[in-house]
Amino acid sequence: MSEIESRGYVHSEALVSTEWVAGHLKDPGVRVVESNEDPLLYSSGHIPGAVEVDWTRDLNDPVRRDYLDRERFQALMRRLGIARDTTVVFYGDRNNWWATYAFWVFQLFGHDKARIMDGGRIKWLNEGRPLTREVPTYPESGYEAPERDDTRVRAFRDQVLRHVEEKRPLIDVRSPAEYTGERLHMPDYPNEGALRGGHIPGAANIPWARAVAEDGTFKSAEELRALYEKEAGLQPQDDVVVYCRIGERSSHTWFVLTHLLGYGRVRNYDGSWTEWGNLVGVPIER
Amino acid sequence: MPVPEKLTRMLDMLDMVTDRNERIQLLIDVANRFQEVPPRISRRPFPEETRVPACESEAYVFAEERPDGTLDFHFAVENPQGISAKAMAAILDQTLSGAPPEEVAQVPTDIVYRVFGRELSMGKSMGLMGMVGMVANLAKKRAGAMERQ
User: Phi, psi at residue B65, to the nearest 5°?
Assistant: First the structure.
């Protein structure tokens, strides 16, 4: 049994170790993808053979507030040489925050052969594993993407409103100060601000990074259950909505609940607080 | 009030680098020139009042007065992956150290977008703007003290 398997996750295959990645650097069936918050990191050095998926340029619609559509996703996959049966391994900075975001967006197009490298970029570095500045190129693939499916893992505001009315569980993964509404004003940054502070009624506050151990790896299933089940009161059969400010931090919690704890119905509300905190007439709790 | 000349030149130069990859390489080179605050100014654990609010890379800003009354700016970045913070620190030191404090005090925080482009997360923007704002505040205090002298 591997160390990751010994942590008791329901779907431990969603995680791979740095050692596993090191052993598959030349595996044509595996594509390693780095996704970071810091735009300089990939170019300063990355895992040999890894390609970059940039969350602003590659994953978003260039005009509307939405994710890329089928054509753009297909073009991205083709450019990165990813086929429908390629195992895509994501890793990145900030405890894999942006890696899980990219992973989640890939799920909108049903790319199920996706993994997260446990511990992310920092673990790879701390283990003294090699980095390169050489940007690889791969032969273009013939990826045929399906239409984006927003029903499985994504929630929209009207669905969230019904969710609240039905008193179903939500997890707010922002900081306690954002959750209480104490921290609202985002100086000089109007694009991600909200007019009202607080949280969606009924939401429990479990900041996303609490799912991560000190070395950047995910906590064990037992520790995660203590957080989400004992503390927040969730049950695996629950219909759960997670949110943050724009849906990126909550994709990390979505990954934990869906893959590590095996919850069957978890959706990420990517409109999140920047939408809810600006909506007219919706209920807010402080 | 004009923006300090060296900063203007740096921003104008960056404006000319329109290719994203070229700009990233240039900023990485800048980050590699980052020098941490010397021990004669401060040592770990750095005082909380020198910490940049909202900077997730745990950056610290220090000012050292020169004989002519202007300031040298020093920085520490505790996050080993905080390469953008290091690039920002190196730019601020290179372009604002020794500049008239009343000009430094007026440097707008949104220069981070001219340096890095608009494709920054909110967390990253806030941290980088916090560094600029802290430098401007230190200069503002110094300019006020000079006026009173």
Answer: -80, 135
Q: Which residues make Cβ contacts (< 8 Å) with residue B68, sequence separation at least 6?
A: none
**Residue A97 to residue B127: CA distance in whole angstroms:** 17
Q: How many CB atoms lie within 10 A of CB A158?
A: 8
DSSP structural state of residue B72:
E
Kind of pairing between the strands at A203-205 and A154-155: unpaired
Q: Considering only alpha carbons, which residue of chain A is nearest residue B121?
A: A37
Residue A192: what pLDDT?
A: 53
| Residue B27 sits at the chain A interface (C-beta within 8 Å) | yes
pLDDT, chain A, mean = 95
pLDDT for B42 beyond 70: yes
Q: Residue A32: which of A46, A51, A12 has the closest Cα? A: A51
Closest CA to B37 of B80, B79, B85, B89: B89
Q: What percent of chain B has pLDDT over 70?
A: 99
- The token duo for A110 is 């049903």
Supply the pLDDT for residue A186: 46
pTM over 0.90: yes
What is the number of CB-based contacts under 8 A between chain A and chain B?
A: 62
Closest A-chain CA to B111: A188
Structure tokens at A60: 């978003």
Q: Do B84 and A44 touch (CB under 8 A)?
A: no
Taking Cα atoms as reference points, which of B54, B53, B49, B45 lies closest to residue B78? Answer: B45
Do the strands B71-77 and B59-65 form a parallel or antiparallel pair, or are they unpaired?
antiparallel
Contacts with A200 (C-beta within 8 Å, 6 or more apart), sequence order:
A160, A164, A170, A172, A243, A276, A283, A284, A285
DSSP A14-62: GEE-HHHHHHTTT-TTEEEEE--SSTTHHHH-B-TT-EE--TTTTTB-S
- Average pLDDT of the residues in A58-76: 95
3-state secondary structure of B53: coil
Top-confidence range, A148-152, A181-185, A187-191, A194-198: A148-152
Q: Is the pLDDT of residue A185 over 70?
A: no
